[in-house]
């Protein structure tokens, strides 16, 4: 099936299964994708025709829940192409909880080692939730600044500078399968390389698949357990839209490393003595094979209603889309179209209107790029527009994107050209993560706008967003000599919106004597292409005609 044929199938599907998506164009699938109508109906029907109890009890409703949990665990492993002989799956709240579970286990085990800690390495493209693990290492961590550094370390672990006293000691290397900022996909061979490195026998790998799994066939990773990561984490709402649960897939051969954690809770312990001088307990995790790995790691009552919904979600997803391979081809085609359209946006004076952040610019290649794109808009005078303004204007016109640091501190500051001292300067100037930060500082943006696509995105979504960007942010008249462009220009302006090389992006702002520097240009608002359905049924907060500039540009402070 060609991408075009598939697209028309999805257009039809959208009307039937996603009526709740008809108000606006949803472009934040990287945040959460959208659930299908059949999933909600199927789940509701099961909830009102059966009686589900707490699976820790033994009565019939409890057993029904327990059976559902077992079946869905197996079903989800099957969906990922992971054999239950080789892998176990632990239900958690979300990807962050999965990462934290692994990190807690390593900290507890690390305390038993000679130097009392484990080593942790992570890639600079990692999500904040991966970065935070370093705080459990008592300073023994290293951030790999690029792929080549990882390759060098894997080849010569002893030689590489990784802030590690003993390369053979206990270690964990974590990285994202896909950057949640740029959508870049990272090499999947690193787990195998680490496993087969003689010097890294104590080092385990954690793959953060939260962003990757949304549009990637995970069977590519799990079909050969020897090539699979030891631990892989997921946020399942990013794949199915609902329910809001996560999973940690553990390679059974490596699972014993998680059995040594100290904490126990209801469900993960087989016996506890609370009184007396020497209270004791027996964790289920340490009693393999009597207990399965997941029984020692799932503290408390599982979200069994959500797991019921997950079973429905998998069935509906497979029925609607067939396989992740078709989704991957479809989203790859769409993101490439979006990228090409953005790269082609130019002001009348010939300057690019959009800076796309990309290290490979290979958007049509699904082994290198997922379905997200990070960018900033640039005025015809050469200054960056505030990403917060861009998001707000887009939102008012019914286009739902995300902007800011998107929880990817390393990716943001390396691609935007920040050095560590500049990050500190930004903090001292009052910038911080989140929606109230300062969007442009000293001429450099502190974040990006991210558009991300999902299985049910269509060509129409992409085209209308490009249309919106063009009609809103692209100058059709040459404003070369306007006061705005005279006070704020990038002397070495990129010759191509897609040339992300930092050297060509060092912003040097020309100052007109007697005027204050304009680091953040206010977008001049022109006609906003309001979608026809919004015109029919305006929502509170959504304007149905052109937008008054004062509401759109009075955003965040800019600082020099
Ligand atoms: C790559 C990546 N890792 C981790 C997370 C954290 O996911 P959650 O907030 O569901 O724990 C996200 C969320 O966007 C992500 O994209």
From TrEMBL:
It comes from the Eukaryota. GO terms for biological process: molybdopterin cofactor metabolic process. GO terms for molecular function: molybdenum cofactor sulfurtransferase activity. InterPro entries: Aminotrans_V_dom (IPR000192), PyrdxlP-dep_Trfase (IPR015424), PyrdxlP-dep_Trfase_major (IPR015421), PyrdxlP-dep_Trfase_small (IPR015422). Residues 25-465 form the Aminotransferase class V domain. PANTHER family: MOLYBDENUM COFACTOR SULFURASE, MOLYBDOPTERIN COFACTOR SULFURASE MOSC. Signal peptide: none annotated. Residues 537-560 are annotated as: Disordered. This is Aminotransferase class V domain-containing protein.
């Amino acid at each position: 099936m060609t991408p075009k044929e598939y697209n028309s199938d999805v257009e039809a599907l959208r009307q039937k299964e996603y009526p709740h998506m008809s108000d606006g164009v949803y472009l934040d699938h990287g945040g959460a994708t959208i659930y299908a109508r059949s999933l909600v109906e199927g789940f509701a029907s099961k909830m009102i025709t059966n009686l589900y109890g707490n699976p820790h009890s033994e009565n019939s409703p409890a057993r029904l829940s327990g059976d559902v949990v077992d079946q869905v665990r197996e079903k989800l492993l099957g969906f990922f192409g992971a054999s239950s002989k080789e892998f176990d799956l632990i239900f958690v709240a979300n990807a962050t909880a999965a990462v934290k579970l692994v990190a807690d286990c390593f900290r507890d085990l690390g305390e038993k080692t000679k130097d009392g800690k484990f080593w942790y390495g992570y890639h600079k493209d990692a999500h904040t939730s991966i970065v935070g693990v370093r705080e459990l290492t008592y300073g023994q961590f290293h951030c790999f600044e690029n792929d080549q550094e990882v390759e060098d370390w894997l080849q010569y672990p002893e030689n590489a500078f990784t802030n590690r006293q003993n390369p053979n000691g206990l270690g964990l290397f974590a990285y994202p399968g896909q950057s949640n900022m740029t959508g870049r996909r990272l090499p999947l061979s690193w787990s195998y390389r680490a496993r087969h490195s003689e010097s890294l026998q104590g080092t385990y790998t954690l793959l953060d698949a939260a962003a990757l799994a949304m549009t990637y066939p995970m069977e590519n990773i799990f079909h050969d357990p020897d090539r699979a990561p030891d631990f892989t984490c997921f946020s399942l709402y990013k794949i199915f839209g609902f329910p809001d649960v996560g999973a940690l897939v553990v390679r059974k051969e490596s699972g014993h490393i998680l059995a040594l954690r100290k904490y126990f809770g209801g469900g993960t312990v087989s016996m506890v003595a609370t009184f007396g001088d020497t209270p004791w307990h027996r964790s289920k995790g340490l009693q393999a094979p009597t207990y399965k790995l997941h029984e020692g790691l799932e503290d408390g009552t599982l979200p069994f209603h959500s797991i019921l919904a997950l079973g429905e979600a998998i069935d509906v997803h497979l029925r609607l889309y067939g396989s992740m391979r078709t989704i991957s081809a479809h989203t790859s085609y769409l993101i490439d179209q979006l990228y090409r359209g953005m790269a082609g946006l130019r002001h009348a004076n010939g300057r690019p209107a959009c800076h796309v952040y990309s290290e490979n610019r290979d958007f049509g290649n699904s082994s290198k790029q997922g379905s997200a794109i990070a960018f900033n808009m640039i005025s015809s005078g050469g200054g960056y527009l505030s990403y917060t303004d861009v998001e707000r204007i887009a939102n008012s016109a019914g286009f739902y994107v995300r902007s800011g640091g998107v929880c990817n501190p390393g990716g943001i500051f390396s691609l935007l050209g920040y050095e560590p001292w500049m990050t500190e300067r930004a903090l001292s100037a009052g910038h911080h993560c989140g929606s109230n930060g300062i969007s442009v500082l000293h001429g450099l943006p502190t974040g990006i706008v991210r558009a991300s696509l999902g299985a049910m995105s269509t060509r129409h979504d992409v085209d209308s967003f490009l249309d919106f960007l063009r009609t809103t942010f692209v100058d059709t008249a040459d404003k070369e000599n306007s006061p705005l462009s005279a006070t704020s220009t990038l002397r070495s302006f990129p010759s191509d919106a897609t040339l992300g090389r930092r050297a060509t992006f060092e912003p040097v702002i020309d100052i007109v004597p007697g005027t204050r520097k304009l680091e953040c240009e206010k977008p001049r608002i022109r006609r906003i292409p309001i979608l026809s359905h919004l015109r029919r049924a305006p929502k509170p907060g959504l304007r149905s005609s052109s937008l008054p500039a004062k509401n759109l540009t009075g955003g965040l402070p800019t600082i020099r």
